[in-house]
Predict the 3D structure of the following.
Amino acid sequence: MTKNGSVCELETQILIAGDLDLIEKCELGTLKKDLSEIERMLKALIKSLKNKPLAQTDHPYYIVNK
């Protein structure tokens, strides 16, 4: 899934930045917590959208070709 790929990519970049001392060690914990929270919110959003039926009038193709 793209969302997991994006989260993992950002986590990797944060870890590399920490290894290169581009981010202070005390900030790494905060960034990891923030990333976990964003991942949780993203999962919840995707779940809610999967469970919501798309109304025909909300579909971009329907609006453009109306």
